[in-house]
Amino acid sequence: MLLRTLLLICLAVPACGTADNSPPPIKLEYPAGGPPLNEHFSFYVLNVDKQDATLVDVDADMPAHKHGILTDPSIELQEDGRYRVDGMLLHMPGDWEIYLDLQYANGAVHRQTIPLILEH
Amino acid sequence: MTRLRLAAALLAAGACVGGLGLNSLDSQEPEADGPLRFTERERSIIQTLSPLPPLPQQASNRWADDPAAARFGQRLFYDARLSREGDRSCASCHSPGLGWSDGLPRAEGRNGALIRNSPSLLHSGYQRWLFWDGRADSLWAQVQWPLEHPDEMGFARADLVRLLARDASLRRDYEELFGPLPEGAADAERFRPGGRPPLPRPSDPFNPAPSLEQLAETDPGHAAWLAMSEADRRAASEVLSRCAKAIEAFERRLVPGPSAFDRFVEGLREDDAQKQGALSRSAQRGLRIFVGKGNCVNCHFSPLLSGGEFHNIGLAVAAGEPFDAGRPDGINTVRVDPMNGRGEFSDAQEWASNVKLRYLRYDEHTFGAYKAPTLRNAAVSAPYMHDGRFATLEEVVRFYVELPGLPPVGHREETLLPVPLDEGEIQDLVAFLESLRGTPVDEQLRRPLEPTEDD
Fold it and tell me: Does B415 touch chain A (CB under 8 A)?
């Protein structure tokens, strides 16, 4: 299956500025070849700890379809600071948005949105 | 030959670039033969649709690919004794001569028409979920529903145990595969006539499921089940699960051979015009619509021509028909099914083998959604849709052209918009769908097994 993905892996975090000492942006590590179409997969979220934040939820939608994913992914903090997300299933080709809900030290939760085009 | 040269000259001159141009050429040269020239994007998508890969692993059934289990399953599949009145078998609603369905809009049960269409069993071994609402997570978990539903075969697992005990041939086949039948299998005092548990049903504070004791007051089959010992109930359920696994092993073999479309894709991949000729020009034009402006491939993708998940396409409910929520009921039911992949009768109960159950989400967006069926061999399993409302593939295509009505619950996929196709394009799309008809499954599978010499 030919998969071509457009990944936007660097996010502008509201709490972060653009100064040189700003924390590194959130990154996602997908499986080799990119997120698969209509197969359960796992991926990692990097640099959440560098933002002094906690990853509290992961979700995804197809905004144009007005529906989301059909699974409830789990989140697990790894010893190396990465978060492992299991149970993601993008069940259709098309334009998806991956949502990462980050909770900051002050308790506020900010949603990071990562667009992703999943092709056949 | 003259027409061919003209077409070749036009192509060489770059007169036609992209789908629009080629369609124009096609309309100017209606008698031209040879393959259409597909764009790189079209070719890329088309090649994801074929060939069909091997069957997926089925961890919850250790006999899924056991030939002896498949033979035993074939015997059970065609055996009408697995029904209350002895008048219907699995093949009654899944007839080999009717595309492994029944040719009816909605299945004819013991007490009249059921609420949904009987899906074809062809390619069922590839399905992630079974039933239009996906309330079973395997073919073997699916079997209990028609077998024991009082509106369908009306059979009971306690009767199944005693049938196996008294039929020497079935007993031999069963015990060679699965080991001895339960002690006292022939004893009607232990495996009571009609004894069966309630079908899986979710329970919540607003809609609690009745207890077995409550059900036993009005249903003799449940009363018989209640009167059985806990050990015998479990033994009967285990026997049913194993017979169901044998039926799954049989059903996994119901995979037709390659279709004209598969030969075409092979030719496309190899740049072999002769192989591409397996698909008529009309069907090729239909294929272009399928992967292009028709957007059919958004839900009917991959070699199965289905994602196997659930979509609300906005079919309006017919007057007088009962409310049918679709997928949400399936989600809640599969979770509590004792015969799901996590249940005690599964051969792989750990979460790692049941990812689809572990992460399954109850989602309001699935109201009114039904499983997108495979389009392979759809041409032989009319009528169509979950309620069999469309008699022909052409009617199905015309529905998508106009998208009339509104769904009774939930909302239609927002990107599902009317597809403006003219009459010729409708016929082209139908021709493509017809081209997905594979060669029939092995003739040996299409009839009951002849008794062996030992029988």
Answer: yes
